[in-house]
Amino acid sequence: MGNGFDLHEMENTEVGSVTIDGAEIQTFTYTLTGVHIQSITAGTTGFMGGDSGHGGRTYLKIKDHGSTDLKIKNPKSGLFEETSSIEISLGGDAELNSTIALLEYAVKVLKSQTKLEVGL
Question: H or E segment at 21?
């Protein structure tokens, strides 16, 4: 893909798959272990030529494997509640492109606010 690294050879990475709306997505799970254990899983079918009707799917999952304070906001109560994982699926080329841009932005914000450089 020209991204400068081979996902198959990264340490602490597991290769898997998930099926969403009939589309099988190859996923890569990266686990960090420290005072807590947390992983992120990501995968996509890639660009498929249009909206979700063309079959493009993108998948993200954040999972607690131990001692992670992970919460999601309950849309009914408006309160944050503990959870063991968060999974997101998006369909379509525009959504894949936007998700990449938005995640890159989020990383910049978090690093800027903490002045933390993580060597991932």
Answer: none
Closest by Cα among 14, 46, 42 to 103: 42
CB 43 within 8 A of CB 26: yes
CB 64 within 8 A of CB 40: no
> Rounded to a whole number, what is the largest CA-CA distance in the chain?
44
pLDDT single digits (tens) 64-82: 999 999 999 999 999 999 9
Reduce the DSSP state of residue 117 to 3 states and report it.
coil
Provide the pairing of β-strand 57-66 with 71-73: unpaired
Both tokens of 51, joined, read: 């909206």
pTM over 0.85: yes
Amino acid at position 83, single letter: T
